[in-house]
C-alpha cells in the first residue's frame, strides 16, 4: 500500500516549516507518529465533530512535535489539525 497519499500532506506541512525541522529522518519519524495518532482518532465515527476527540488528537500531536520542532509549533499544529480533518473526515479503519 502506498502511504504517500495518506502522509504527503503531513510531509508538506513539515517541509514548509524548514526552520522548525531540518533532519529528514526526523521528519519521517514525526509523520509516522502523527499519522498513527490521526488514525486512532479517525477510527471514531464523526470524530471531527467532537470537540473532546479533536482536543485529544491535538494534544497527542503536540506531544509528538514537542522537543522535536524548534519553532512554529502552534502554526504546524494548526496545519496538521486542518489537514487531518480534511483528509480523514470519512476515514474507514477497515482500509488501514
Keywords, please?
mainly alpha; 4 helices; globular; DUF3387 domain-containing protein
Secondary structure topology:
Layout: H1 4-16, H2 24-42, H3 51-65, H4 73-88
Pfam family, one: T1RH-like_C
InterPro entries: T1RH-like_C (IPR021810)
Domain Type I restriction enzyme HindI endonuclease subunit-like C-terminal: 10-88
Short synopsis of the structure:
The chain is mainly alpha-helical and 96 residues long. The chain has helices spanning 4-16, 24-42, 51-65, 73-88.
Order of helices and strands: HHHH
**Which structural class matches the secondary elements?**
mainly alpha
Strand content: under 5%
Shape: globular
Mean pLDDT, to the nearest integer, reads 83
Main sheet: strands, sense, barrel: none
Q: Could you give the count of β-strands?
A: 0
Count of domains: 1
Number of helices: 4
Intertermini distance: 9 Å
Poorly predicted sequence stretches spanning 5 or more consecutive residues: none
What does this structure look like?
The protein is mostly helical. It has one domain. It contains 4 helices and no strands. It has helices at 4-16, 24-42, 51-65, 73-88. Helix 1 (4-16) runs antiparallel to helix 4 (73-88) and helix 3 (51-65) crosses helix 4 (73-88). The radius of gyration is 13 Å and the shape is globular. The mean pLDDT is 83.
Amino acid at each position: 500500500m502506498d502511504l504517500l497519499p495518506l502522509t504527503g500532506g503531513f510531509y508538506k506541512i513539515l517541509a514548509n516549516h524548514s526552520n522548525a525541522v531540518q533532519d529528514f529522518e526526523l521528519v519521517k519519524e514525526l509523520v509516522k507518529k502523527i499519522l498513527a495518532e490521526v488514525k486512532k482518532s479517525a477510527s471514531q465515527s464523526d470524530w471531527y465533530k467532537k470537540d473532546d476527540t479533536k482536543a485529544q488528537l491535538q494534544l497527542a500531536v503536540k506531544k509528538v512535535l514537542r522537543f522535536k520542532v524548534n519553532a512554529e509549533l502552534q502554526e504546524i499544529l494548526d496545519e496538521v489539525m486542518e489537514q487531518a480533518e480534511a483528509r480523514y473526515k470519512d476515514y474507514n479503519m477497515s482500509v488501514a
